[in-house]
What we know:
Structural class: alpha/beta
Keywords: Membrane, Oxidoreductase, Transmembrane, Transmembrane helix
Transmembrane segments: 130-149
Number of domains: 2
Protein name: NADP-dependent alkenal double bond reductase P1
Oligomer: single chain
GO molecular function: oxidoreductase activity, acting on the CH-CH group of donors, NAD or NADP as acceptor
CATH architecture of the largest domain: Alpha-Beta Complex
Domain Enoyl reductase (ER): 19-341
Strand content: 25-35%
Order of helices and strands: EEEHHEEEEHEHEHEHEHEHHEHEHE
CATH superfamily of the largest domain: Medium-chain alcohol dehydrogenases, catalytic domain
Amino acid sequence: MEVTNRYITVKAHVEGEPTESDFEIKSSTISTSVQPGSNDIILKNLYVSIDPYQINRIKSHSASHTTSSFAVVITPGETIDAYGVARVVASGNPEFEKGDLVVGMITWGEYCVLKGEYMLRKLDPMGFPLSYHVGIFAFSGLTAYAGLFEVGKPKKGEKVFVSAASGSIGHLVGQYAKQFGCYVVGCAGSKEKVALLKEKLGFDDAFNYKEETDLKSALKRYFPDGIDVYFDNVGGEMLEAAVANMNIYGRIAACGVIAEYTGVGKRAAPDMLEIVYKRITIHGFLTSDYMNLYPDFLSATVDYLRTGAIQTLEDISSGVESIAPAFVGLFHGANTGKKIVKLADE
Length: 346
């Protein structure tokens, strides 16, 4: 038996801000059977993750290409791999059987055929929606947890600032920090998102950075006694402002620089005198550095969710047609929480 697979490709390398026209939907016919004795596996994709870091993969040159196996260059016209949840259609691998739910690296498409070595494991939903295993139980959640606790190293009572605080990672960082006993302020790009942070997620305070003409002064208002930990998702001028308001021995967990990915904004130029005399640590990190923490992270997060101590925000659209708009929207603040595309019913 054969099925038609529709999938997303990028037409050419993109050096600036992505647009929907940079992508196209292609179709191919794939067999739903595998050769006996092979390691091949055929999946029907159910949910796929939409992440900002993919912009660096579709550039012709990026530091990510040679430093992370998860962020190597994408060749125009080829399938784009991404984290997601799928169901096994056929398998030559004895570890997987037809009908199994799996989670791992799949593709921006309706089906995928995996050969050779692949990153995949059976999925136990644990009573949670499958989408949670693309967001809070996947790289977004682990990034928030590891970045805060292993890189930021907060102490109870310290003051934590989170940029892009309504995004896939930021909204979790703030909640983890609150549960730990920190004072937490986040920034976001609309008054609705600010209200969400304060009223639903329990941030101590939040502000709309688009309404601030002087970010350094804004942070001084919200942190009159200084910032101890800054979880940086954006880079740019926000990083400069945070450095100016950091306390002595402050820590910055450099998770992402979405303000700089497309090359259209100002590059961050933090005051090095501040960094030296305040003895500030700026630590860039990748989630893959902390996979050893996954069991502890998962146990804590499951408990928080089941007791209602934290909540997760998901922004889910449907169909392969929505992948490109969903991705482009990330760079305009269109999403609230984790952006996911549902490709098929469970």
